[in-house]
Structures are given as C-alpha cells and as structure tokens.
Design goal:
Blueprint lengths: L2 H12 L3 H5 L2 H6 L2 E5 L2 E6 L6 E3 L4 E2 L1 H19 L4 E12 L8 E10 L3 E11 L7 E17 L2
Antiparallel strand pairs: 1-2, 2-6, 3-4, 5-8, 6-7, 7-8
Amino acid sequence: MTDLTGARRAARAHGDFSLLRARVPYAAFLDVQVRLENGAPRFRLPFRPSLIGNPALPALHGGAVAGFMENAALLHLLLLLDERKVPKAIDFSIDYLRSANAADAHAACEVARQGRRVAQVQIRCWQDEAGHPGRTREIALGRAHFLLGALPAP
C-alpha cells in the first residue's frame, strides 16, 4: 500500500483529509478544507488577509482563487479515482464571473470526461452572499485537464 493509497483510504473511511491534502503542497499552503456533502467532496478556501489582492475593494487575489480551484480539482480526482500516482495538470482555464469578497470561497468539482490517460474536471466556485443565509454567488468557473498516472506520489 502506497502512502497515497493510505491517505485516500483514511479520507474515504474516516473523513480525515489531512493526509491526502499533504500530498498536494500548495493545497496545504492555501489550507484547502475538504468535506463530504451527500457523498460528494466539497472544498473550502478559508479567508485570511494574506489572500487579498485588491485592498481597495477588498477582494481575494485572482491567483489565489485559481490556485484553490485547480487544487480542488486535483484533490477531487485523488478522492474519486484509485490513482497510484498524483495526476499532473495539463492545462487549466478559468472564467472569472465577479470579484471574490474577503470571505471564504467554496468549490465543487465534476469529472466531465475520463479516459485511460486524461481526465477533464469542471470546477464551480462560489461564496455565500453576505446577509442572505443560504444564498450563494458564483465567482468563477474552471476547466482542468489532468494526466493520470503521471508522477509518483511524494
């Protein structure tokens, strides 16, 4: 059993995503949080002032949002697929819909296509609408392609 397999097993069985997140250093740096909602992984980028890109608004930096979304897609693949190696990003594209407030961001992913060597993941990112519990506002949509079985797990 590889470390990646053990991390995936702990995440699936016990909801302990810390070992899996540790396999993706930038996700650990951003402090990406993972939880299961109706069996599907949901991701959260906890707000912290160092993520602000425009202090005049204030708004989260677009690179932090994009990095969060790409890492959410990678973690999504690691959770759902039984890859023995960490998938390698081939490309990533993002459509920014509006500026991200100085608040937590959330993401949900869907594997749109998967072949033997490449998987395409679609990512939706949103924030809760201030003052309106239960209402959300989308801030970005992304698409990523990953090469499967590309790199050995660190």
